Structure formats: structure tokens, C-alpha cells
Automatic annotation (TrEMBL):
It is an enzyme of class 1 (oxidoreductase). GO terms for cellular component: extracellular region. Its main location: secreted. It comes from Rhypophila decipiens. This is lytic cellulose monooxygenase (C4-dehydrogenating). Residues 17-217 form the Auxiliary Activity family 9 catalytic domain. It is found in: Secreted.
Amino acid sequence: MKLLAPLMLLASTAEAHYRFSRIVVNGVAEAKEWTAVRQTKNYQGNQGVTDVNSNDMRCFQMRTGTSTATINAGGTLGFIANSQITHFGPVSFYMARVPDNANINTWEPAGNVWFKVAVIDAVRKGNDWDWPAYNKVQVDFTVPKSVPSGKYLVRVESIALHQAQSVGGAQIYLSCAQVEVTDGGNGTPGPLVSFPGAYRSNDQGLLWSYYPVKTSYTAPGPKVWTGN
């Protein structure tokens, strides 16, 4: 996506919001919303989270899950939005291991339990920026082959930067799916972070400048764990 007309972009996308309510496991999509995905507070209004210090940064959930999807380590897991991702910005994926003695349907992912497994970040092209997730309906990542078997919450996060010229302007669209990973490895995921806590409101990855146009950009949060 080229940012050639920022004022027109702001006008045309100010009301275009979305939610992630279904997942795709190895190419097979869920038929209904809120099956393995915990129902989010924006299930009607599609609004994003703007306060990175809010507990809504965990899963933005209104209700916990009704089922748990199964995927093999090394498989492809995707999230489907109810409409196109109509705002430019990065998309990140996190996972949190559910303790063996906890119920995945009710477990609250508080504290340093999250690790980043993938990010769809900006691509600099000359004087412009391309955002590979922009206008997509589905975003995917590969579950690291060495992630240990077990039950996880998998968190998708789309950061909309179209109004992020000042602190608090970024809109974060997120949800969590309940997933059991099979055929896993013996990796040690990390670094582990918490939500809230992983981001600060003035992080450069949560701010955008049209004039002058940014010359570098990196999504906020920890480094991606690709497996070990």
C-alpha cells in the first residue's frame, strides 16, 4: 500500500473497522464465528483497543471459548476477519501456553506468558511503504516446529496506524483462539512478555508520521521466536 494521499486515506477509512472471529487450520476454515476464538468485546461494533495499559490488550474478550482447535506443530494457522483489514499497519501473532492444571476455557493469560511467533511487518519500497496485510481478509503464520505440545491461546493483533500521529491514536484489533498443539518439539519459547506491559503508549511502533514520512519502522514488542 502506498501512502500517497494521507488525507484521503484518513477520510475513507475512518469508519472501517473489523474483528477476527474465525480461524483457519491448515487451510480448513471454521464455519462459524466464535468457535475456537474467544468472543471479543467488539463483536458488534468492531472497534479497536486504544489503551495499551488496559487488560483488554490480552484477548479483548467478552466470553471465553466454546471449543479448542487442534493443529500440528509446523502447521499453518490463520485468522479470518469479518471484512478486509482496511487500515495499514503490522499484524503480529503471539502464543501463551496454558498450564497443564488449568482449564483452557477459563484460563486468564495474565503475567509474562506471551511470546511472539510471527509478524507481518512493513516493507520499505523507495519513498513509499507497503503493508502486506493491508486489504487482506485472512492472515496466517506457521506454528514453530519446536514449540512444545500442549494447549495454547493464540493471539492475533492488527495495529492500525492511520490516526497514530500522536500517542493513543493507534487502534489495535485483536482476539485469541484456543488451540491444542500436537507433535511438538522441545523448544523454549521466549522472551515472555505480558499484556498489558509489552507495549508503552509512546513506542515508535505505535506512532506514524505522514510528514515527514518515516524512514524506518518496526512493529512494537519482543523479537519473534522462530524455534530452537
